[in-house]
Amino acid sequence: MKLMITGGAGFIGGAVVRTLINETDHQVVNVDKLTYAGNLESLAEVSASDRYHFVQADIADAEAMAHILAQHQPDKIMHLAAESHVDRSIDGPADFIQTNIVGTYTLLEAARHYWQSLNQSASPEALQKAQQFRFHHVSTDEVYGDLAHTDDLFTESTPYAPSSPYSASKASSDHLVRAWYRTFGLPVVLTNCSNNYGPYHFPEKLIPLMILNALSGKPLPVYGDGQQIRDWLYVEDHARALIKVSLDGHTGDTYNIGGHNEKTNLDVVYTLCDLLQARVPPASGHYRDLITFVPDRPGHDLRYAIDARKIQRELGWTPSETFETGMAKTVDWFLTHTQWCQNVLDGSYRGERLGLQGLH
Ligand code: NAD
């Protein structure tokens, strides 16, 4: 089978591509624009495979999408390409509207025409491809808004109430994907997942930022009082869940994916500090001493928590890592992949300096 992955040079897309090449026989076409978040160095271990093909393209470029689909004839599309960083969506929402909404619309239209042309073909292979074709939209639990401490977990039928430009743009794209299913019959499936962490995570996000700041003795900026709660999932567990949904999910359905690991941001930072303290203690003091509380993010959601029982019940997926094992693996990965980190921090992975600040 051939899977087209959009955003395969990003954090989660990269984990999907590596898992598909390392653990299956499927072919992969990775379509990525290579924004600041796209890093081909994260795919070094699979890029020589004859089952892997990379195309640099923007999902909002209708001509390019039509051409790639006609040329590569994928059996499935896994759509991960997006602008994904909440703080950036507050500083500059335009790219989020363009990629997450206009880009998803453009890709849906290209997929619809491709799928319709397969359906109209006289060739049995094309008709078989049309039957197994699926457009999988990868989304976030942030579309559901936030929860009070006493509220029930997000389920697949929780009403949408996004808070940030990022989550509003992802909610819009989810609605577009469902509309293309209802109106045009395009076979789609959707997933909404909680916060991911793990290897190759871009260091503007909470966990890698804290690890790398701590190792260089810089402050560890925590928003507000650090009591916001997130559910955390190890990225390779998410990648396996996504592959299962793309291959076996029920057409038209949504699956929530989560780790059942609700933690406050402050607890996450404490855990990281303690793991680092045990491995590479500083000359004096404790990494926890570097924690600095900074003014809260506008519209910051209090709590996200996912009910992932449907994917467990229907597709037999459960995460392999606990929060403790996943965090330990992540810290060890960052301690042993210093060149990857250095190339991101000094911008040499894309030939420029990023000047990363204390964002997460
Ligand atoms: P990321 O920012 O690490 O990667 C995004 C990738 O998309 C990059 O490689 C980038 O170059 C590419 N891209 C951006 N704009 C593009 C465009 N116009 N055309 C083609 N490629 C483009 O993101 P991520 O964290 O890997 O997230 C992947 C998907 O999963 C996103 O849709 C995100 O909303 C969703 N998601 C993320 C999380 C999380 O915790 N990171 C959780 C749930 C869902």
From TrEMBL:
What GO MF terms are annotated?
dTDP-glucose 4,6-dehydratase activity
Q: Which residues form a coiled coil?
A: none
For activity, the cofactor(s) needed are:
NAD(+)
Catalytic activity reads: dTDP-alpha-D-glucose = dTDP-4-dehydro-6-deoxy-alpha-D-glucose + H2O
Domain named NAD(P)-binding: which ranges?
Answer: 4-330
Q: What is its EC number?
A: 4.2.1.46
| First-level EC class | lyase
List the transmembrane segments.
none
User: Which keywords label this protein?
Assistant: Lyase, NAD
Q: Name one Pfam family in it.
A: GDP_Man_Dehyd
Tell me one GO biological process term. Answer: nucleotide-sugar metabolic process
Name the domain of life: Bacteria
Instruction: Return the similarity comment.
Output: Belongs to the NAD(P)-dependent epimerase/dehydratase family. dTDP-glucose dehydratase subfamily.
Please identify the protein, giving its name as recorded. dTDP-glucose 4,6-dehydratase
